[in-house]
Amino acid sequence: MNIFLIIIILLLAIIAAVIAYNLYQENQYRTKIRSQFGHSDQDALLTSSTQSVRDGKSFTSLLRRSKVEKQPETQADAFEEITKVADNEPAQDLAITPLKFIADDMDNIAEVPEITQPKTLTEEETRATIADIKSAVAAALEQSEEPEEEPETIEDSIIEPVKPAIVAPVLAAEPEEDERPLLVELTDLERSELLWFDKRFDFMGYVALREPKELHAIPRLSGRHRFQIIGCTMDGRFQAAEPIPGVAYQAFVVGLQAISRSGLASEVELEYFARQVQLFANKMDGKASTADIEPFLRTARPLDELCARVDQTIAIHLVSRASVLGTELRSAVEKAGFELMADGTFTLSGSNGDIKYTIAALDGSAFTEALLASQPYKGFSMLFDITRVPEAEDDFNEFMTLAVRLSGELGLDLVDDQVRQLSADWLKEVRSYVGARQNEMLKVGIEPGGALSKRLFA
Question: 44, 101, 330, 379 - which has most CB atoms within 10 Å?
């Protein structure tokens, strides 16, 4: 018991010592601060050793320049100082002494000339001075009474303003047209019919060169729309222009695809393309021409409207009332001939390798290896692109057969966009609709799934 009491006392003593030491340190700190900043009658700026002023000069240099150590505070002080100086100087007039004193002590004031006492005049000199003053005043009065010369007429007094000289504008000399002959006539290029282009929706440009040139880089002629450059080699063959060393061209045919799934190119975009073609021709030392914009747009607009009308996709949704495992879904669709693509969809290709049908997730997400192996799905959508499937009725029947088979294997329901059960009447209407749209395409020479269709609906 005594040991615990001793330990407690020691601890309390240690704590008291620490507190006392802290109080002592705090008191010392306050005393130090009070000695430094506690004087309210001192100004730190007055006792500082600052040596610079606004113009960069020091106080010492300014004092040397002025040579004035102290300025009098009042007029009485100034007078007293002047009087003291005058007492020490040799006897002279008090009115002159202050001026000489100030002039001698100021370097920037010129020396004051010596001032003498006014001379006392005699009576005769005074009378002569008064007579001179009277004669000078009379002469001044006579001169003031003489009339000033006036201008002859008012018109003469008006200063006619200076008319600005009209300078004829200097017109820049138009560049003289190069007289060197072209390797290919532009009219011959304009009449050419090349397999790469369709003048109904390709806005054409033509470039003929004066000398054979290699193409060092593909020019950037448009930003939003696709374009092709076909070159005419020196042996008269047309081929896709590429920057190949040793291959020289004598002309180029350029086509801007004005119709696509992005819409019809505007007049501004066509004008920009025409300017870029002209710049390309100037760079290649050639001459360029482009199609007329307004006639081209009159032809392209109806075709663009048709493309917008037929560019549709038929969707059939296979929906599960519970869920279907990703592994089961993948196994069933791959068994039917579909293949998982890099974009996260399953596709079925035709005999020519082109995509016929597509399977996508209901929520638009991508199918991946990891997700298919780990998560269930509510179903999927089967897509039929009208513009890409060649045979409307036959291929649509195949499409529906695959949908029915997959729904049976996976236990899914076939529904439309409004989540309504598909009926036989609905299938007949859709089949007829697909056939009608493809017939419209065929009437204007666009085969579903063909080369033109792939370009227009890319």
Answer: 379
> Is the pLDDT confidence value at 198 over 80?
yes
* Token pair belonging to 197: 């282009």
Distances (CA, A) of 135 to 121, 122, 363: 20, 20, 120
Average pLDDT rounded to a whole number, residues 206-226: 90
Give the mean pLDDT of the chain: 77
Query: What span, in angstroms and rounded, lies between the C-alpha atoms of 115 and 103?
Result: 13
Sheet holding 202-214, edge to edge: 238-240, 227-233, 248-257, 202-214, 286-290
67 secondary structure, DSSP code: -
Residue 333: CB partners within 8 Å, gap ≥ 6? 346, 359, 380, 406
Instruction: State which H helix or E strand residue 22 sits in.
Output: helix 2-37
Structural domains of the chain sorted by starting position, each given as residue range(s) with its CATH number in brackets: 186-294 (no CATH), 308-457 (3.30.1400.10)
Q: How long, in residues, is the chain?
A: 458
Which residue carries 């061209």 as its tokens? 249
pLDDT score for 161: 47
Instruction: Report the 10 Å Cβ neighbour count for 441.
Output: 25
Tens of pLDDT, residue by residue over 279-306, are 999 999 999 999 999 999 999 999 999 9
Q: What is the CA radius of gyration of the chain?
A: 54
Question: What sign does the CA torsion over 350, 353, 354, 358 have?
Answer: positive
Beta bridge partners of 318: 380, 414
Could you give the dihedral angle defined by the CA atoms of residues 332, 333, 335 and 337, in that order, rounded to the nearest 10 degrees?
170
In the chain, the percentage of residues whose pLDDT exceeds 90 is 47
> Do residues 253 and 206 touch, judged by C-beta distance below 8 A?
yes
Q: Cα–Cα distance between 103 and 80 in angstroms, integer?
A: 18
The two structure tokens encoding residue 139: 């002469």
The confidence score (pLDDT) of residue 288 equals: 94
Q: Residue 301: its pLDDT value, please?
A: 96
**What is the rounded distance in angstroms from the CA atom of residue 302 to the CA atom of residue 154?**
78
Continuous H helices in 375-410: 392-410
Q: What are 357's strand-pairing partners?
A: 348, 384
- DSSP state string for 56-77: S--HHHHHHHH--S---SSHHH
Candidates 70, 71, 51; CA nearest to 61 is: 51
How far is it, in rounded angstroms, from Cα 448 to Cα 391?
Answer: 8
